Amino acid sequence: MLSIADLIKVYPTGTRALNGVTLKIDQPQVVAIIGSSGAGKSTLIRCVNRLIEPTSGRVVLNELDVTTLSRADLRKARRRMGMIFQEYNLVERLTVMENALSGRLGYVNFWQAYRRRYPPADISTAFELLDRVGLKGYQDTRADALSGGQRQRVGIARALMQHPDLLLVDEPTASLDPKTSRQIMRLLCELAHERGTPALVNIHDVGLAQSYADRIVGLAGGQVAFDGTPSQLTHQVLTDIYGEEDWSKTIRKVDKDDKKPKDRDALDRESAAG
Amino acid sequence: MTVDEHAQKYPEVWKRFTPRQTLIRYAWYLGVVFVAIWSLDTLEIPWFYFLDAHEEAGDLFARMIPPYWAFFGDIAGPLIETIHIATLGTAITVLLALPIAIIAARNTTPNAFTWFIGRFILVASRSVNTVVWGLVFVAIFGPGPMAGIWSIAARSIGFVGKLVAEAIEEIDQGMVEAIEATGASRLQVLLIGVIPQVLPVIFGTIVYRWDINIRESTVLGFVGAGGIGIVLYSSINQFAWHEVSVMLIAIFGIVLVSEFVSATVRNHIT
């Protein structure tokens, strides 16, 4: 599905953000990328869709080498990669529906976008997704009138509108409170699994990563320092990734109940409130 | 702790400015006064005329009163023409200023050359006064409202374009990144990612400029570029102060209304 080979990024300032990252995702799974600030998490994710140009190395998505594409072909490739951001990055003065539909921009022309005339199929998909993320009835609300959790739900809907082959998720919960964070992570992972879409998720919160991800990759100094299952995350591994610290309170027993909501309706109510 | 004990424990004396800084500040004050005196001296103002200025002003005011109200019938036409000149000039500005602002903003311009062109147009437009543009366009189109419309537009493009370009440079780049990540084209990124962010600035600036243009278009007639200015100029030349006062009152009324409209519109933009 996705294969990253020996990816290097050196910024003009001389900072070596990525120093030979090699990573393979060959099944639809949620991969949490953890690591301290400056370890290269954001750079890695942005090098995949080339919002940041990698200095060298390969990114191959479904047999397509993204790193060598021309601008026009890159746009086509980006249509297949949904991205979700820490600060949501919704266009604040547009409505929820306009934001969700902006996930289809790669498939409509300028005038269709100008007149907001998206194909009917896109509009019904958008309604379905807004319903799924818990924002039924919010289509005409302006994005700047939403709470953080609601904005991130729109962000998720926008990314999924692309019917992506890959989700790139940059710190989805860093601007949210702990409860909303868990709801958003749960929703994100559920949707990724439902649709069989692999997801690369940058995340600061080790506990959240352990609870929701299928696989954890630790970055340190621009390199992969750990790649394994959440249960393999030990004191020693965290020390390798972040440095010496008392990790006993951070590592939680993997709690299977966490992933399985007891009651669908209760979850939906929670979702709409968040 | 007594004051003495306190002073013993914390003996440092705090002063906001060093003596040197204080000296520099007073040197600046002195410099400003010097420049003012020097300017007045260079201008060689005939102070003699100042002696009876208050009498002249009173005399002028007396000659303006009472306003010759019937004259209003003659100026209604030119007055409406003035508003039309301002409005049409602003409309042309709307069409031209946005593309220029986009190429003049560092984060949306295609390359260094287009950026230079954009900046050049903005500076050129702003460095020339509307009335001077009026002289230029009267030479091109001949006297009349067409020259007025284009001189209003020529000056306003720089004003609106500069403010919008600055707003574009300050947008949230995250939203742009998000739209780029969907595979949108360059124009679509502008349309969905950039323009919605600066729309309040665009509307606010245009309405504000329209309000300024109403005022500026009242003097365009002085150089033959249409509007009430022609009538005003000829009445002043004929010392018909009763007519002049009617026009000043009418202009004042229009400016008041346009300010009100502009303020209301700007308050309602969210």
Describe what is shown at a glance.
The complex is a heterodimer of chains A (274) and B (270). Chain A has helices at residues 41-48, 71-78, 96-101, 110-114, 120-132, 148-160, 178-195, 206-212, 235-242, 256-259, 264-273; strands at 2-10, 16-25, 30-34, 56-61, 64-65, 81-84, 166-170, 199-202, 215-220, 223-228. Chain A is of the alpha/beta class.
Task: Describe this structure as you would to a colleague.
The complex is a heterodimer of chains A (274) and B (270). Chain A is α/β, with parallel strands linked by helices and 274 residues long. Chain A is built from eleven helices and ten strands. Chain A has helices at 41-48, 71-78, 96-101, 110-114, 120-132, 148-160, 178-195, 206-212, 235-242, 256-259, 264-273, and strands at residues 2-10, 16-25, 30-34, 56-61, 64-65, 81-84, 166-170, 199-202, 215-220, 223-228. Chain A has a six-stranded mixed β-sheet with strand order 6-7-8-3-9-10, with helices on both faces. A four-stranded antiparallel β-sheet of chain A has the order 2-1-4-5. In chain A, helix 7 (178-195) links the parallel strand 7 (166-170) and strand 8. In chain A, 45% of the residues are buried. Residues 254-270 of chain A have low confidence and may be disordered. The N and C termini of chain B lie far apart (56 Å). Chain B is built from eleven helices and no strands. Chain B has a single domain (80-268), classed as Orthogonal Bundle (MetI-like fold), CATH 1.10.3720.10. Chain B has helices at residues 3-9, 19-43, 53-64, 72-104, 112-127, 130-141, 145-169, 173-181, 186-217, 229-237, 241-268. Chain B has 270 residues and is mainly alpha-helical. The A-B interface holds A 49, 51, 75-81, 83, 85, 87, 89-94, 98, 102-106, 110, 113-114, 155, 158, 162, 168 and B 172, 174-175, 177-185, 187-188, 191-193, 196-197, 199-200.
